[in-house]
Specification:
Radius of gyration: 19 Å
Mean pLDDT: 95
Order of helices and strands: EEHEEEHHEEEHEEEEHEEEEH
Bound molecules: 4'-deoxy-4'-aminopyridoxal-5'-phosphate
Helix content: 25-40%
Low-confidence stretches: none
Strand content: 25-35%
Number of helices: 6
Structural class: alpha+beta
Length: 285
């Protein structure tokens, strides 16, 4: 697949050439957000954990009260057709469900619910040595927002905190939750290693990522003890290794985190490297 190849996106049951895959400027979800989406990755023509992503997409839609006219089987089939039609081997795949442009009212029964599945070339990780900074923006509590929901409504924070971090010379933002505990990054979950233990925040106010769950399972299989706990930002100073996980970034090593006092620099990456290698084996099985 090259950038010049024709790409066909799946939109409401039809294949549409990428160049004409456009929507109206009056699109409800553009103005009021509330779209839901997934980020998936195909390896050798097969989407890793497609069922899990599809279930999460439908759960997110339910949280955002989107009455999706497609069921689980329809969405799986649409993905398979997309792969075949475009002869995809490796790609990042983006299904999105959104409200249409039929009305500018916040609530209106004429609003359509649409599904599209697009894809882009999956780029290799650009940076395995991330420099993160804790942002002053906090993740909301789960009674302010359905925290397991992948909605565009939630990502405005990631965009703002991401730009803020870049402007300050960092690669990305690390969020604390509303109680001041370490939560997640803009599009990834975080892990630490200390004395050979794998430590990660409890996923009670942020996305319990599919990659996060996969890494925990891999670690347990390898006999690595996994501790899920609430982590105060100052604890970061004591940890040995750090990495982030996500479908797009996979397992990405962290060089340092500014945790409010200074940059903590992580020294070794023995367990990170093992988990990276095992994850790469698994996605290509
Ligand atoms: N947190 C956020 C906010 C994300 O956007 C993502 C990427 N989907 C993740 C964590 C990691 O989730 P996953 O491993 O399911 O891709």
């Amino acid at each position: 697949m090259t950038e010049n190849d024709s790409h066909y996106f799946w939109i409401n049951g039809d294949f549409v050439d990428k160049k004409s895959a456009n929507i109206s400027v009056l699109t409800h979800s553009l103005h009021y957000s509330g779209a839901v989406f997934e980020g998936e990755k195909a390896y050798n023509g097969k989407i890793f954990k497609l069922s899990e992503h599809t279930n999460r997409l439908l759960d997110s839609a339910k949280s955002m009260m989107l009455d999706v006219p497609y069921n689980f089987d329809d969405i799986i089939l649409a993905h398979k057709q997309l792969i075949e039609k475009n002869n995809i081997s490796d790609a990042y795949i983006r299904p999105l469900i959104w409200r249409g442009a039929e009305s500018m009212n916040i609530v209106n029964s004429s609003l359509s619910v649409n599904l599209m599945i697009a894809f882009v070339k999956s780029s290799p990780r650009s940076n395995d040595n991330l420099k993160l900074r804790i942002t002053t923006w906090k993740k909301p509590s789960s009674d302010s927002f359905p925290t397991q929901c992948k909605s565009s409504a939630h990502y405005a924070m990631g965009v703002v905190a991401g730009i803020e971090s870049r402007n300050l010379g960092y690669d990305g933002a690390l969020f604390l939750d509303h109680k001041g505990c370490v939560a997640e990054c803009a599009t990834s979950n975080i892990f630490f290693v200390h004395n050979k233990f794998l430590i990660t925040p409890v996923a009670d106010t942020f996305l319990n990522g599919i990659t996060r769950q996969t890494i925990i399972a891999i670690a347990k299989n390898l006999g690595i003890d996994v501790i899920e706990k609430h982590i105060a930002p100052t604890e970061i100073a004591y940890y040995d290794e750090c990495f982030v996980t996500g479908t797009a970034v996979e397992v990405n090593g962290v060089h340092s985190i500014y945790y409010g006092i200074k940059d903590k620099i992580f020294e070794q990456n023995e367990i990170t490297t093992i988990l990276m290698q095992e994850y790469q084996k698994l996605v290509r099985l």
